[in-house]
Amino acid sequence: MVDWELDVRPVRSARIAVAAAAVLLTTFTVGGIWLRHSSTGVTFYASDQIAMIVLGVVLAGAALLFTRPRLKAGAAGVVVRNLFGDKAIPWDLVRGLSFPDRKAWARIELPADEYVPVLALRASDKSHAADAVERFRALAARHTA
Fold first, then answer.
1. Which of 92, 120, 135, 143 is within CB 3.0–4.6 Å of 69 for a Cys-Cys bond?
2. What span, in angstroms and rounded, lies between the C-alpha atoms of 15 and 4?
3. How far is it, in rounded angstroms, from Cα 49 to Cα 16?
4. pLDDT tens over the chain, length 145 residues
5. DSSP the chain
6. CA separation, residue 138 to residues 12, 14, 99 (Å)
């Protein structure tokens, strides 16, 4: 097990994602329950109700993907988790962490003008993101020197 010196998750976007998931799940569940009671003359069956609720669960799950982003850094290197999958980066490949102007999230600079987006460090988190960037840069200076 690796001991991470830095472990950062987004704050604002995670809260919004949880709220959106709750609204989606509630809306589709209530809509699914009320679906059978239509005054339009259309007949809905139990399978339609179940499908509506399952659709709400799927959409809520998709919204919760925005709670996944995470940045971990330690002596072993850097691990970036975005919406799908993790990417481990050894310190010898890290050229820096930048927050480009007018961009929603930071990115780790790699050799040959490549980069890895870091959705865990979002501009909307303001001081939380700024503190995390400073801590990451201090770790990078220590582990790449």
1. 120
2. 24
3. 27
4. 678 999 999 999 999 999 999 999 999 999 998 877 666 677 788 898 999 999 999 999 999 999 999 999 999 999 999 999 999 999 999 999 998 888 999 999 999 999 999 999 999 999 999 999 999 999 999 988 7
5. ----SEEE--SHHHHHHHHHHHHHHHHHHHHHHHTT--SSS----HHHHHHHHHHHHHHHHHHHGGG--EEEEETTEEEEE-SS-EEEE-GGG--EEE--TT-SEEEEEETTTEEEEEEEEEGGGTHHHHHHHHHHHHHHHHHH-
6. 24, 26, 16
Structure token digits, residue 18: 């949880």
72 token code pair: 């971990």
Whole-angstrom Cα distance, residue 10 to residue 138? 20
What tokens appear for 106 in the block?
A: 């930071």
Among residues 101, 119, 139, 135, the alpha carbon closest in space to that of 11 is found at 119
Q: What is the pTM of this model?
A: 0.83
